[in-house]
Write a structure and sequence with these properties.
This protein has 547 residues and is an alpha/beta fold. 31% of the residues lie in helices and 17% in strands. The strands form 5 sheets. Strands 1, 2, 3, 4, 5, 6, 17 and 18 form an 8-stranded mixed β-sheet that branches. Strands 7-16-8-9-12 form a 5-stranded parallel β-sheet, with helices on one face. A hairpin with a 2-residue loop joins β13 and β14. α1 packs parallel to α13. The model has no long low-confidence stretch (mean pLDDT 96). The protein binds 3-acetylpyridine adenine dinucleotide. The site of 3-acetylpyridine adenine dinucleotide (N01) has 26 residues, from α5.
Length: 547
């Protein structure tokens, strides 16, 4: 007999990375009861798992960090332009301690299923713990997902992997204890951002490194550096303006951006402008000309400039040509920022293996066969990426009131309203996923905005005595059209990448994020709140349980 009144807790949050922690903080401040469940043994999300050599942020840490607390910004000092994984993790741990968030978090525990009860307007949530006999069932009014957009790892099903016998690693699940490759023959599979950061450091340690490349990527020099005291003083006194400017930027990321067209300048000025942005280092290279990602010819010209740079660095012309993408859109896949990446291929103990033909055929004892040749290896690093944006959401069995799961609803491609809510799944909000600008906006800045929007909505619900909120099909369709229209304007939607799900065998192909810019997204979400969440159907209070 059910004689309780109301849910066990107002809100369950899944994940204790940047999203989950800030949601938790806001919810506690607003007087909601909250439980956070985190599969990992501690806070950090991405930065808990991605401990591979060289892992670091490629957005400047002073922007890729929380802005909600002036004291936090004032007290925390970033040591480098791009913080390393250990420093980022220390920062997240500091935030969890400083705002006393750990007491709300249950670690080592996965949310397995959640089912919505349309009578009580509550989610029933089942968790599984790593502790024997652990796990619990609880009821919550709201379910908030901060599960990460690049958190479900992808390891292709290579034949014979069980016969290999050597050590294997995935960059996105790197061990906590130090990994020593000294004296070893190491293979890295993949040449995305994770590989590009780790390859130069693994090469320094290994006896020999083979890099198995299926598709080359565009990499620009990161130009990381340690901050001087003067820079730190300038950063700390300028936070206020920097954060305001972030909200005005298309990417929520402040860097020198020239909106002009590459077609409007003479070749000499074009070259000089590209040089200026090349020297800045990192993703700001994309800011040299405003049409780089929207105009084929502009993109081609930037690509040609970049190709010359790479040919000048790589000693062996054949290797250089292998490292240059064949006609791919520059910046179509996420641009990679590297340190000594191309230089590493000048080492005698590093071999680039082109696996764009028959690929990696199978693993065998002590190695693998690729393109008809056997490579003897002691260890293999899978830098093979993630089931991005949807993978960690559909891994949970989230069941709406009509018995449909999110995995079923998204089987033909994900649909959302404002990237936050999903028709058919009341009282559920998802962070940074499909339909959100998240992966095109400085991640933490986007997270703060969405968290504040969600918690304000929950407060509004409480104030009005509402207990059920759900995106309508109409508003979801409307937002889907806006997402598609923005995608159609960008060359990025024409590429095979994790943005489109093309990297996962069998995944529905659709350009998933919203690429209409952060300011436009701020307007859409503000309007939705100002109009009393009119794109949602809102009802309540729920029927009280009758016992
Ligand atoms: O993953 P990826 P990632 N045989 O999907 C290859 C963020 N991030 O972990 O292109 C051989 O980019 C695959 O080849 P192909 C960032 O947003 C940020 O590197 O499919 N190769 C590709 O080369 C980034 O975009 C930072 O032909 C296979 C690679 O594996 C995102 O995470 C650092 C293969 C996967 O590249 C993902 O990056 C790291 C196969 N069967 C990551 N299957 C920062 O700097 C796959 N590949 C903050």
């Amino acid at each position: 007999m059910d004689d309780r009144e109301g849910p066990d807790v107002d809100v369950v949050v899944v994940g204790a990375g940047f999203s989950g922690l800030y949601l938790c903080h806001l919810l506690v401040q607003a007087g909601f009861s909250v439980r956070v469940f985190e599969a990992a043994g501690d806070v950090g999300g991405t930065w808990y798992w991605n401990r591979y050599p060289g892992a670091r942020c490629d957005i400047e840490s002073v922007q890729y960090s929380y802005q909600f607390s002036d004291e936090l910004q004032r007290d925390w000092t970033w040591s480098e332009r791009y913080a390393s994984q250990p420093e980022l993790l220390r920062y997240i741990e500091h935030v969890a301690d400083r705002f006393d968030l750990r007491r709300h978090i249950t670690f080592g525990t996965r949310v397995e299923t959640a089912a919505f009860d349309d009578r009580t307007h509550e989610w029933t949530i089942d968790t599984r713990s790593r502790e024997p006999g652990g796990g619990e069932t609880l009821r919550a009014r709201f379910l908030l997902l901060g599960v990460g957009v690049l958190s479900t790892t992808n390891t292709p099903a290579f034949d014979g992997l069980e016969d290999f016998g050597g050590r294997t690693f995935h960059t996105g699940r790197w061990p906590h204890e130090p990994v020593d490759f000294s004296g070893q023959r190491v293979g890295v599979i993949g040449t995305g951002s994770s590989a590009i950061q780790s390859i130069p450091l693994i090469a320094e340690q290994a006896a020999h490194l083979h890099v198995f490349q299926r598709t080359p990527n565009y990499v620009v020099p990161a130009r990381n550096h340690v901050y001087t005291e003067d820079e730190i003083a300038r950063i700390k006194s300028g936070y206020h303006e920097l954060r305001a400017e972030q909200r005005r930027r298309f990417t929520g990321f402040v860097f020198p951006f020239n909106p002009g067209s590459i077609h409007d300048v003479e070749p000499a000025e074009r070259f000089a402008q590209l040089e200026r942005h090349w020297e800045i280092g990192g993703l700001p290279f994309l800011g040299a000309f405003g049409d780089t990602l929207f105009d084929w010819d502009a993109n081609r010209m930037v690509t040609e400039y970049w190709q010359d740079k790479i040919r000048a660095v790589v000693d062996d012309p054949e290797i250089a040509e292998l490292l240059i993408p064949d006609g791919d859109i520059f910046g179509g896949k996420r641009l990679c920022a590297g340190t000594d990446y191309y230089e590493t291929y000048n080492r005698d103990d590093v071999t680039l293996v082109d696996v764009s033909g028959t690929g990696i055929e199978r693993f065998v004892e002590g190695g693998l066969i690729a393109e008809g040749r056997t490579y003897e290896l002691d260890a293999v690093v899978f830098a093979t990426g993630f089931d991005a944006l949807t993978g960690s959401v559909v891994a949970m069995d989230i069941v709406g009131p009509d018995g449909t799961t999110v995995a079923e609803a998204w089987a033909g491609g994900p649909s959302t309203y404002l990237g936050l809510s999903v028709a058919g799944f009341p009282n559920l909000f998802n962070m940074q996923g499909p339909g959100s600008p998240g992966v095109f906006v400085t991640m933490v800045t986007g997270i703060e905005h969405q968290s504040e929007w969600i918690v304000a909505c929950l407060e509004w619900m409480r104030e009005h005595g509402h207990t059920r909120i759900e995106a309508t099909e109409d508003s979801q369709r409307w937002w889907g059209d806006i997402v598609d229209e923005a995608a159609a304007r960008s060359l990025r939607s024409r590429c095979d990448s994790w943005y489109t799900g093309a990297n996962i065998a069998g995944k529905h192909r659709k350009f998933m994020p919203y690429i209409g810019g952060f300011p436009a997204y701020l307007e859409h979400t503000a309007r939705e709140a100002a109009e009393g969440y009119s794109g949602h159907s809102v009802v309540g209070p729920a029927v009280a349980p009758t016992g």
